Amino acid sequence: xLRTERVPGVRDSLDYVFLxxxxxxxxxxxxxxxxxxxxxxxxxxxxxxxxxxGVLLNRDNGVWFGGRCGxxxxxxxxxxxxxxxxxxxxxxGIVVGVLVLGSGLYFCIRQIRRKRYGPAP
Length: 121
Description:
- The chain is an alpha+beta fold.
- It has helices at residues 74-82, 91-117, and strands at residues 3-6, 13-19, 31-37, 54-55, 58-60, 63-65, 71-72.
């Protein structure tokens, strides 16, 4: 973090100005201004000047937002992004989905056969 600046007309927020060393996802300039609360009660950042940190950001109406909940060490952020390209397969969901579809198909076929081969009126 380079510095903090007050937001004109806003009492409970600060703009934290960060020097960007590495962008993991998206596009950022060399410096990025991130709006956050003030102090621990406002979930503001917990970072010292010239201290490397990883920050997860959200953007709304052209303003970047972040805070303590989206702050991790720079090393953790780099490690987390290495696994990002790994395919995610939810085998449990696939098995349950196949079972549900199979059961539905079974009961539909059963209903059709009952109607077709049912007793004559």
